[in-house]
Amino acid sequence: MNPLAGSIPARADMEQRAQAVLLGSAVGDALGATTEFMNPAQIREKFGIHKDIVGGGWLNLDPGQVTDDTEMTLCVARAIAAKGEWDLVGIADRFAQWLEGNPVDVGVTCRRGIEGYRAKRQLQVPPGKKDAGNGAAMRIAPVAIFSLGNEEGMARLAVEQARLTHNHPLSDAACVAVGIMVQWGILGYPAQKLRAVADELVDRHPEFLFEDYDGGTTAYVVDTMRTALEAFFTTGCFEECLIKTVNRGGDADTTAAIAGAIAGARYGLEAIPSRWLLALDPALRDELSLLALRLLNLSPLFSGKRES
Ligand code: MN
Ligand code: MN
């Protein structure tokens, strides 16, 4: 089936949705980093409801500062944008450079994968039981924008970029599901279409059952996805979705980075509260906005090339 059959939204509409994907993910990271590794009771006690980008958290961040989720997303986006085409080696090089710069945070699995690349130029880590973390799914958004108009291509590239650090069927499945939801959001598909993607993920991997989920929000990609999907499908706007996500605590910056990408696509740029956008570093905000447009321009839908 051609997902583009019928009407597609105006270009300007897709552009602002693509920008909302990257910006939505970054504000999720900045907002959630404050409550990362807290539990809901601790969050309630300290903030009532956590809803402003104030920094702090276990990393003692400045207000608006982002973490590995956004930094690795930038590596993926910058590599593709710089080459003007898919560039797995470029992504790996940027991950390596980023790790050398002593980032504020880096996941264990990501570090191991990047070190494998540095030592052996390995572009795919071997399958690992412990590789079902959320570190690949959190940086998938640029791939979804870049491959808009070619879903199979997106699925292939999503898994390629994931396996630089994570090689596990549940991580792969999460990356592809997030990628499709982001793409369908940019294309303006209704909520029930996005729901069908999530339901299909659950059909194939029942671990991801997210309805009524109120369990822990860990770095296990299954818990991460259940948290993000539950929040997305039980709220009606970007702001509510992210507030619900970050007040669950746990791996809050990462659950909110993923929820922010999906909700950004679905609700668009105008739905992102300006107090959150303004809290980000203006240079980061500008770069994410430009990268979103650049990636969209390179996509099969806009470039006319079939293959990404
Ligand atoms: Mn993080
Ligand atoms: Mn995290």
- Structure annotation, total helices: 15
What are the low-pLDDT stretches, counting only 5+ consecutive residues below 50?
Answer: none
N-to-C terminal Cα separation, in Å? 19 Å
- Decide which structural class fits the backbone: mainly alpha
Element order, helices and strands?
HHHHHHHHHHHHHHH
Which cofactor or ligand species appear? manganese (II) ion
Short description:
The chain is an all-alpha fold.
Would you kindly provide a written description of the structure presented here, covering whatever features stand out?
It is globular and about 50 Å long. It has helices at residues 11-32, 40-47, 68-83, 88-100, 108-120, 141-146, 151-162, 169-186, 191-204, 221-233, 238-246, 252-267, 274-279, 282-298, 300-303. Helix 7 (151-162) packs across helix 8. The chain is mainly α and 308 residues long. The chain is built from 15 helices and no strands. The chain is 61% helix and 0% strand. One manganese (II) ion (MN) binds next to helix 12. One manganese (II) ion binds at residues 67-69, 105, 253-254.
Topology:
Elements: H1 11-32, H2 40-47, H3 68-83, H4 88-100, H5 108-120, H6 141-146, H7 151-162, H8 169-186, H9 191-204, H10 221-233, H11 238-246, H12 252-267, H13 274-279, H14 282-298, H15 300-303
Helix pairs in contact: 1-11, 1-12, 1-14, 3-4, 3-14, 4-5, 7-8, 8-9, 8-12, 10-11, 10-12, 11-12
Bound molecules: manganese (II) ion (2 copies).
Residues 36, 251, 253-254 line the site of one manganese (II) ion.
